[in-house]
Structure formats: structure tokens, C-alpha cells
Amino acid sequence: MKVIQIKDLHKTYSESEVEVHAVNGVTLDFAEGEFAAIVGPSGSGKTTLLNMIGGLDDPTSGDVKVGGTNMSDLKGEALTDFRLNNIGFVFQSYNLIPVLTAKENTEFVMRLQGKTTQECERRTIELLQAVGLGERINARPSKSSGGQQQRVAVARALASKPKFVLADEPTANLDSKSTETLLDIMEKLNKEENITFVFSTHDARVVKKARRVITIEDGKIISDVRKNGGE
Questions:
Q1: Could you report the per-residue pLDDT of 18-65, keeping only the tens digit for each?
Q2: CATH number assigned to the domain comprising residue 172
Q3: Per-residue pLDDT tens for 207-229?
Q4: Cβ-contact 21, 60 below 8 angstroms
Q5: Is residue 209 part of a domain?
Q6: Do residues 36 and 214 make contact, with C-beta atoms less than 8 angstroms apart?
Q7: 131/54 Cα distance (integer angstroms)
Q8: Where are the strands (E) in 57-176, listed by range?
Q9: Is residue 212 within 8 Å of 36, Cβ to Cβ?
Q10: Is 231 within a domain?
Q11: H/E segment holding residue 152
């Protein structure tokens, strides 16, 4: 079942009177439960593509449908609600709330969803322990390393058990052990809960785990390879 459908997608920017085609005519589908990586050099368009899938950026032209919903049809509160209840994001820049602890950042989306305090706390502690931060649940971002902040960001994205997780360079600041731990957690949720994962990455460790690898250059898809076991 195709749960993400991208058709003739374009994103064009103007820089010093020159048009830059960040994404240039991408047509792509993702099936439910995929574990896929979008790879390519810096400036290839992979982050822009990910942002348009998640409704964080509007396309110049073309369509993105997520779970059958055309993202361009959603505006304001409707778009916010859709992302809240369907998509988990992991940003390269973490995007943690500075005044909140690791626990509070992780459970933030669940609070917005109206989950009970007991459910929020159980899920949050479980995930923070899984990513090796069980002893740092009360630490704020300013008192945490880049790698620790990234692990909180990943825990937050997974906490609400979204249907889709879009992860932009999720392992960029992690050592090998932390990377393996996080990828194992994501892979487990992917298989057990059928969450669809799409990564933007330079990391060979992520590419190795992915069951599908899509290469983008100059805003265009140049290869799309499914490994053994991929859908």
C-alpha cells in the first residue's frame, strides 16, 4: 500500500536573480512500513524533499500525499493537527525547547495529543532509558552535549508512535554505539508497529540498515535501490 505519494515535485528558489532548482521533478512512492534512506551530497535537495513530505515547506509545483492526504490542501491549524497526529520529525538542529528537561521535551507531543500523565511518563522513561539517557531525564538542552540532545530529539519523535517518521541526519552527532542503539530502536518500531521511516542521511551506518536507498543529485532522483527484504 502506497502511503506517501510524490508526483512531479518541484521546489525553486531565486538567488541573486538566478533560479535554483532544489527539487526538480521528483516522482516517488513509499509503501507502508518502509525503512528508507535518501542520500546525496550537500545541496542535492534531500532535506528540501523531506521538508515538503512533512508539510514544513511548500512545493513550487507538484503534489505530496501522505496517508492519502494532499499536504498542499492543509493550511494553518489543519496542517498542524495532521502533523501532530501522524508524523514524527527528527531535525539535524534538534529543535528542542530550551526551558524543558529531556523528559518534558520527549513527552511534549504526547501532551499536545491529550495522552494521560501516566501514559506520557511510562513511554517517556522507556524511550529515554533505551537511548541511554535514563540518568539524565531532568537535564535541559543547555546542560547536554550535542549527541545527548539528538537522542532526546529522536525519543521525542518516537514517543507519540506516529505513522511516519521523517529524520534529517538523525545520527549526525552520535558515536557508533549510540547510532546502533537508535537504529535498532527505530528498526524495532518499524517492524513491530509498521511505522514508515524515511531518512535523509550521509551516514553509511544508516544506509546499511535501510532496506531501500534513494540517491538524489541536483534535485533529481538518479537511483532507487531496494535491498533484499525491502518492499
A1: 888 999 999 999 999 999 999 998 889 999 999 999 999 999 999 999
A2: 3.40.50.300
A3: 999 999 999 999 999 999 998 75
A4: no
A5: yes
A6: yes
A7: 24
A8: 61-66, 69-70, 87-90, 164-168
A9: yes
A10: no
A11: helix 146-159
